[in-house]
Biotin synthase (Anditalea andensis), 359 residues
Amino acid sequence: MNNKHWSIDEIVEIYNTPLLNLIYDASTVHRLHHDPNKIQVSSLISIKTGGCPEDCGYCPQAARYHTGVEGNQLLDVQQVKAQALRARSAGSSRVCLGAAWRNVKDGPEFDQVLEMVRTITQLDMEVCCTLGMLTENQAKRLEEAGLYAYNHNIDSSEEYYKEVISTRAFDDRLSTINNVRKTSITLCSGGIIGMGESLKDRAGMLKILANMNPQPESVPINALVPVEGTPLAEEKPVSIWDMVRMIATSRIVLPHTQIRLSAGRTQMSQEGQTLCFLAGANSIFAGDKLLTTPNPDSNEDHELFNLLGIKTQSPFEKHAKREPVEQTATSSALNEKPKWTRPGHVIERNIRASKKDQI
């Protein structure tokens, strides 16, 4: 349980600690709660790529931007199983299934995702889904299918969120997280740095995550990968020092959480990644692509792990496996009609990016 209530000022103070002291403090916390020589490895499978109706300023999968990412149909169960088996053979303990949806809609496609979850869980792998916003009933159906984790990032502080996304509300993110928490599914929720946010915004994001009770079991920290055609294409890459500080601060305020060093690793040297591990990162995404953006090859990761003497975490080390159960009357679609918000405010750079080819 989380008994500490963090303030933004406290988190900013931690972030600004002299760097060597900050890394030492974070590493000390890390060693109290985790094996410093173990890394949890996840693989991300895009089960439905592109065509998303949202306007997230960082995302090449938004249909309104001109990024060359074409919308594809949902993969079938056997295709996903084959990719999961390849991920397992490469050392991944978890598979995350990502669909470029605004929110989950009951029907054949969601039923297909539930079958994917059941199938991969039977391979003795942890299964995570990131499908957009979902209702309480949909979360319960995922739980019954055996889902291990649900990812729903809050992206940034509540204040800066409005500068990046206009098609959904921050409160809807929290509502989905609350729906997940009504089940036994573990929560994965983090955000992105390098979108033009301030240090206060970074601290604001961590404040929300750290003050959740319980705290998320997994927190991905992403460095923005600027993609041509998106509104954030011209943002400067995050420095490794900012990333180390963000990882270390996350570790201190989220002591029991697995902190995932996520997007942006292709821009980091092995030495930079090692500093992040020393500062408390104990999870990564493996594979040469994260949805649509580049990621280091699995062989490069294993080479680094061997150099550092790091071992990969086995499935279900942190939380017990939940066996899928037969669907019950309560797990069937309820034809719910949630009122997910469309705030309606305008983000000028998002508008410009959507009209780029028309100018």
The longest helix spans residues 19-33. The chain is about 35% helix and 15% strand.
